[in-house]
């Protein structure tokens, strides 16, 4: 008997990670976490909505729709046949039991169409719904656009709703604060003018413990490129600056970083629809590079900043293309490897999977370069399904993670589909995700943690730094 | 900058052979050259400590770090230096009396007689002119400027405390302009683009009145008109009128004392008057990806698809130049015409005192030289520095590093062919 009992205990089924995700999701349902989406409070939205008047609502909505949107919006609205082919593209829809209100077209219905139908006469409550949809239920990831037979750009429509929300004064608190930081400091995290060069200097000092001749050249006029980062690097992830410096130094690059503001390439103002601040920040970014007479700007591993410098911000200012060549780290690292300027002393001992940031893959097609580098560094990339151009967003992007703590649970639960994708990888023995984007790291970390996936996240720079030969290092 | 006392004897002088210095230091950082070309300076690592060298001779003192090396118009070599966790501002090897929490952003008066820096002291911010720090320091300060005469410094300052993510307080306005440490009475959501008038007696700035409305404030008084956006203003040096790029209906124009004076453009910035106030020029985009200069509202025909930068206007407005970048290549636009050659990089155009000639440092195939009126100097070096015209406008000072040797050459304009 006792033998049998022992046997039974040992045989208790071990859950796969995919099963774990399902179990957790069921528990979340039972715990009412999905239902709680409806009750989230946000000071920025709620106090803003309380101040709205019918006149202000109509005037603002129509001001943007009629005054700022050209024929593009009209064409999209008239072209959409409500076929719903885009629905299965959206992680919000897939993660929320295919509730049609989360489908791309459902979100347009709850926002732009409603505004057009009612000639801008929304109730404050409808305005509240619109901003919640636009800022927390869509990442502007443009996955849906790829499935629409007419190529309708839902993200553009949702961006317009954000612009309207900004003008109504109902933007979520935390992301509004981030845009405020941009307007004062020209960076995302209230980093003061002295804190930036000071951080570069202590990172240089740290780096010299390893590479005694390491330099982070500040304001080096005429350098080959300016390296720009996003403000979370000097604020929280300072070692990334040190790592980049070591990589560039050991690869023999001629590079610099500016002393004065303009060093931050990120852009939450783009995501709140505060285009005036976006333009000012992008102008400063390119002007500081121009003053240094660099031939190009290499930017760190960030997705949304790429969209801002490469596509949105530059064009708002009248620059058709970036006025100074803009190179994403993914491309730059690939180039360094192709030119033989980085040699590896080791390989990462495991296979990895690769999460493509929407903005570098759908905005610029950098997925092959990313894999080229990741394959060199590791035992190989195992693809998630879907991946590359069709990768599901992390649900942090588009400024969603920047809406802060009130929206965190909703953000994580609304990407159960990503958790399932990752779990399938984990079940195949893949423990590491490579992703060249800060926001993706933030979003994926929360998902990994919530669903107990026990996976590790790496930037390309993390792996290169760890695995490269460093001829200049002390023994 | 007074160039009349400089040596304008035509010909070449070897100032320093860097090859001879190499063994003295662990390493030598970027090279800087004084405006008169007589001195070459660089940060040097002396057995793990840092200093600056001038023509091969290091300052007496060494520091844990030296950075932000700059020559002033009078030829003084300045830098920021740290020791035991404190920061000093060093001029020709002599630190100012005070030490700071941090010091950066060196600015010189036009003639070089005054030096100003941004300072952080006990986590408060202000400016110091010749080592004299503002009496009032602020929670934060950005966008420092120094008047041409060097007697006044200003910045956008934060005058009230703000807690984490206090968005209403932010929108209501906690920023203003401080001149010589004294803040204006009115608070704004943001302050940008500070500009002094030529004698430093007045100051204008862009102000954001709430999250949506922008205007220009002059000596604390905002214009009555508001706009969707603004860029930095400028003063008419003769009439004292303030003009600024402003955005209305999604397009940009220049406004003078509140009222539009030009047609509308896709963009318009960096307005600049001639010193006699007769001519007003600005960089404009006439369409997406089509950039040029407009003079008194009329755009030139020559355009650049990537960018136009570094606009300069002569005293009487007779000579106007800017850089234009098409594709990845640079050239200069002068009075509406492009120079014949294209370069991998170009530096800000320099105008001759008589308003007849334009010179610029350029880079081609990894070599640097000077171009005058579109014609290149016969030699190109491993490095080269901004050219200067002689007071009589007959010669150009060419400062060039070739084969590790730094030469100062006074070259007649006729030699640029
Ligand atoms: S852009 Fe992305 S997040 Fe937004 S609706 Fe489309 S698929 Fe969903
Ligand atoms: S796939 Fe295109 S046409 Fe169909 S509902 Fe979506 S946006 Fe409309
Ligand atoms: S955070 Fe990463 S995956 Fe997500 S929207 Fe940005 S780039 Fe997309």
UniProtKB/TrEMBL annotation, chain A:
<feature type="domain" description="4Fe-4S ferredoxin-type">
    <location>
        <begin position="71"/>
        <end position="99"/>
    </location>
</feature>
<keyword id="KW-0408">Iron</keyword>
<keyword id="KW-0004">4Fe-4S</keyword>
<dbReference type="GO" id="GO:0016491">
    <property type="term" value="F:oxidoreductase activity"/>
</dbReference>
<dbReference type="InterPro" id="IPR017896">
    <property type="entry name" value="4Fe4S_Fe-S-bd"/>
</dbReference>
<feature type="domain" description="4Fe-4S ferredoxin-type">
    <location>
        <begin position="129"/>
        <end position="160"/>
    </location>
</feature>
<dbReference type="GO" id="GO:0046872">
    <property type="term" value="F:metal ion binding"/>
</dbReference>
<dbReference type="GO" id="GO:0051539">
    <property type="term" value="F:4 iron, 4 sulfur cluster binding"/>
</dbReference>
<dbReference type="Pfam" id="PF13183">
    <property type="entry name" value="Fer4_8"/>
</dbReference>
<keyword id="KW-0479">Metal-binding</keyword>
<dbReference type="InterPro" id="IPR009051">
    <property type="entry name" value="Helical_ferredxn"/>
</dbReference>
<dbReference type="InterPro" id="IPR017900">
    <property type="entry name" value="4Fe4S_Fe_S_CS"/>
</dbReference>
<dbReference type="InterPro" id="IPR004017">
    <property type="entry name" value="Cys_rich_dom"/>
</dbReference>
<keyword id="KW-0249">Electron transport</keyword>
<keyword id="KW-0411">Iron-sulfur</keyword>
<keyword id="KW-0813">Transport</keyword>
<dbReference type="Pfam" id="PF02754">
    <property type="entry name" value="CCG"/>
</dbReference>
<protein>
    <submittedName>
        <fullName>4Fe-4S ferredoxin</fullName>
    </submittedName>
</protein>
TrEMBL record, chain B:
<dbReference type="InterPro" id="IPR011042">
    <property type="entry name" value="6-blade_b-propeller_TolB-like"/>
</dbReference>
<protein>
    <recommendedName>
        <fullName>WD40 repeat domain-containing protein</fullName>
    </recommendedName>
</protein>
